Amino acid sequence: MTVVAVTGKGGTGKTILSALLIHFISQRTTSVLAVDADPDSNLPDALGVAELVEKTLGDIREVFQVSRDEMGSTNKEQWLEGKIYGEAICECDTFDLIVMGRPEGEGCYCYANNLLRGVLRRLMRHYDYIIIDSEAGLEHFSRKTIDSADYIIVVTDMSKKGLATAKRIKELSEELDLGFKDIFLVGNRIANKEAEDVIRRFADEIGMKVLDFLPYDETIAELDLRGEPVINLPETSEYYQKAKKIADMIVELHAESVTK
């Protein structure tokens, strides 16, 4: 099992990259679980499967929170597991999808969240690849909601906030000793060689590996305006080809871990 979490500042393009990674890897194996952990829940649209999503984990958590006191001796973890398998897993053609949903409402959800984490960890063991479109920012690191990830891909643009978020993610992962195998940096919407050089110097300074630089692609904006999924990006697109290379790298990392 290889778990990849795609993260970074909001608006840097992490959902686009997540969707393309899922698309490419699921062409090589059907053992892929896509996890939309961003409260904005844009991943289903980017993958073109939004109409298949009926319930989120947030929906199930809300029902559990309201009704758990009435369950008596019912095994609550088994109840949650049954609900997740029966209602929250979207079985798409070449991958499965889970949408985490909006943050919890009033009251303490610690018990429900802890149960959910345990169920999700068991569920994830059934897949070779888990690709997580993470919540923007840093909270998921401080809360250790993606502590089971093997690899982190931080997506950044040329903005100061994007680079600052990438640096803080690297620092937090070390402070919290999360034990990731590696943390990579991907530059998105990078227009020229000068911009690439700036990001390379930045990555060297903070000790991160640069995977690649993705260009600005007008077709992505056009697809969004037409309400089409980003996976419809033409194969001739430079963006498409570079994202595919990143997916190939993940497959290679997985193969290496299996043979060890």
Characterize the structure shown:
The chain has a single domain (2-259), classed as P-loop containing nucleotide triphosphate hydrolases (Rossmann fold), CATH 3.40.50. 47% of the residues lie in helices and 16% in strands. Strand 6, helix 7 and strand 7 form a beta-alpha-beta unit. It contains ten helices and eight strands. The longest helix is centred in the last third of the chain and has 22 residues, at 238-259. Helix 1 packs across helix 10 (238-259), helix 3 (57-67) packs antiparallel against helix 4 (76-88) and helix 4 (76-88) packs across helix 5. The chain has an eight-stranded mixed beta sheet with strand order 3-4-2-5-1-6-7-8, with helices on both faces. The mean pLDDT is 88. The chain is of the alpha/beta class.
Feature tags:
single chain; 260 residues; alpha/beta; Rossmann fold; eight-stranded mixed sheet; 10 helices; 47% helix; globular; CobQ/CobB/MinD/ParA_Nub-bd_dom
SSE pattern:
EHEHHHEEHEHEHEHEHH
Number of helices: 10
Proper CATH architecture: 3-Layer(aba) Sandwich
Uncertain runs are none
What is the straight-line distance between the termini?
Answer: 13 Å
What would CATH call the homologous superfamily? P-loop containing nucleotide triphosphate hydrolases
> What is the CATH T-level topology?
Rossmann fold
Estimated helix fraction: 40-55%
Rg from Cα: 18 Å
What is the CATH domain class? Answer: Alpha Beta
Strand order of the largest sheet: 3-4-2-5-1-6-7-8
Domain CobQ/CobB/MinD/ParA nucleotide binding: 4-230
Pfam families: CbiA
GO molecular function: ATP binding; ATP hydrolysis activity
Protein name: CO dehydrogenase maturation factor
